[in-house]
Amino acid sequence: NSNMKGQKVLIVKTRQNKLIKKVYEQYLRRDISCGISTCFACDQPIKAISIEDNNTVYIPDDLFFVNQMDLVENFQFLQNVVCLQTVFNIVKQESGEKSKTLQDLLDGYRCFYLFPNEHHADCYIRPNSQIQEYNTQRKTQLILKAAEYYAAHLEVSNTRVILLTNTEEDKEKYLSLREANFLEVQSAFNYIQDHSQDYPDLMEYSSFFVWTQLPSGMGEEKKPIYEEHVNKEEMEDGLRKGKYFYGKIMINRLDNTQGSVKARGLNEEIFIIGEKNLNRSLNQDVVAIQILPETEWVTRSALLRDIEEEEEEAASYQLEVSEQGANIEVLKKRLAQSKKNPTGKVVSVIKRHERSFCGSIVKEETLMDDSGISKCTISPYDSRYPQIEMMTKKYECLAGKRIVVKIDQWDIYSQIPQGHFVRIIGDEGSITVESEVILLEHNVEIRPFSKSVLNCLPTAKWEIPESEIAKRLDLRGFNICSIDPPGCKDIDDALHCRTLPNGNYEVGVHIADVTYFVKAQSELDKEAARRCTTVYLVEKRTDMLPQVLTENLCSLRSNVDR
């Protein structure tokens, strides 16, 4: 049936600036389950959403997930969530960290369900030929049509279906386009207001933008401090013509108002000096820069030399710059002849380096009203980053604590970036807390292993099969000793030494074989690759593999078959 077959048309730009049209066949079905346990029209999957206690289904769009992911992750009472495949794909493009969090929510115990809307005949929209697969118009249409399908599909059971988006502007856009008037649409601010009486801490996890919607005296007029970033079209045109260059910016640990960019195409280190020239860029952002006039170049002795070398390519950003031609050659000659180091300024942030920040409150200002909101200044643990502004109603609880925050925005009117609270780590100065800060700052994964990873493991009572014993060299008769200290639980290597008939000594090194349990490309294998290694601090360790392997089945303990 031709009506049950769709097309996925994608026009992509190559590095040589050529456009290639890719067409995929897409088969459509109507027997895909909505995932709601009370729906009698669908065959329910193993993991279906139960709405017996709360007769409401939420469908967040990509803007809600990207901007409010900490709220989604931390607010355990946000249940009955349908994640559209369109939304998941966009979140994956936007943020690897947030897509992993979303995948963990879908795999976990909370009522989250992934609905493949682009393969459902009633939710499919035939694409036009566009350069981007999810341009703004098509993305909005796909999300709205799937939400309207749910609203109509569940109307018979009197189930509320609410489409969640980020701002009031986004909400009005959906309302103006919807065809089903019984579909409700809420902004993040609406959702928080609806639940704030029962859950007063909910506001703490929301992005900085949501706080600005409150009547708290934050609307005073400000003057611009920084230059506006150039738009994407102007930036890419400037890169092609040699007016701009791009690379990853590295900020000086000794002075966070200095940085450098190893400019692609020039193979030259360009120094960025001063807050205005850094123009709201952060350490390890991929940025577009413009070289300043030679009169503003500096001698190397004028710079504090603590900028780290960064060999990694400038993220995945690629642009064909063969048109730079003569401009680059002229600039290279100037650089070769000059005794000074070239300087530049940031004209655009191409890709933000995605991360959280550990820090403490160093300044608090109560806003001039009875809202109870405090404007706090957070000093990050890592000195390469600027202070961060944050709003909270829990200043008394956060004072004297190490906390985790994330940056939401940095507009031209603000001296420092604005962010939001994520969680409390603990009291400043505590060994346990400061150890966790070290791990977080060095991007060491400390979250518990997910359910999908634990499902790959055998039970703790697992025994070696006879078939496996027959395949292996049996060394149980040897005197083998561990080189790990007394009390060590993860004994992963050992030694033996014996005299051979010819008088020589045989030294054997025994290593635990984890590959038997860690199958290639399994969720366990992928998680181990992400963690990379077990990290040891003075008083604790963070495992690369779950404890059932490291402390039991793969630990070379005495008098136990391994």
Protein model, in words:
This protein is α+β, with helices and mostly antiparallel strands and 562 residues long. The protein is 25% helix and 24% strand. The protein has 16 helices and 22 strands. The longest helix is centred in the N-terminal third of the chain and has 18 residues, at 136-153. Mean pLDDT is 84; it is low at 307-311.
Secondary-structure class: alpha+beta
How are strands sequenced across the largest beta sheet? 10-9-8-11-12
Low-confidence stretches: 307-311
Count, helices: 16
Report how far apart the termini are: 58 Å
Q: Globular, elongated, flat, extended or rod-shaped: what is the shape?
A: globular
Instruction: Please summarize the sheet with the most strands.
Output: 5 strands, antiparallel
Mean pLDDT: 84
Tell me the fraction of residues in β-strands, as a range: 15-25%
How large is the radius of gyration? Answer: 28 Å
Bin the helical content. 25-40%
Number of strands: 22
